[in-house]
Amino acid sequence: MFVFLGFLAGFLGSTYDLRNLALLLLLIFGFVMFFDELYMRFSLISSRILSIFKRNGVKNEKAKSYSPLIMGLLIGFIWSPCIGPIVGALLSYSATRSGVEGALIMLVYGFGLSFSVSSLILIGDKIDKKKILRKESILRKFVGVFLILYSLLIITGIYPKIEMFLSTLIPV
User: Fold this and answer.
1) Nearest to 81 by CA among 116, 45, 117, 111
2) Is the pTM of this model over 0.70?
């Protein structure tokens, strides 16, 4: 699903207007990640959307046989306050690239996410969860600063210059 969304964002984002919209969204998601109040509002809105799906859930016993699929979709909705801004930022960035590049960006994200989740499942009992939760705000704000700076570098035209400079350092 991430690959498809990345391809779609990259394909649709090839127009100039969608590219500007994607950069604006990338900047907005950076602010959402950095400012606690915006993050809380985003989480509240995401939770309200989730509650709509929860209220209108599956009631048919035969339909419950599709529970793994439904569970996966629900986990996606539940995670939306956590990974929503990051996925949104990645999709916004993908919209500034080609369809194939957008798909590759989301493929790498999907692999990284699945590796992280799998690792947490395997070592979950050994992790001090309280310690991680204390650092959550710092990590989230770091990602927010990164997204804001990255957006501004693209908007101001500095990022392509950095790419060109770095490309000269890579031996071909």
Assistant:
1) 45
2) no
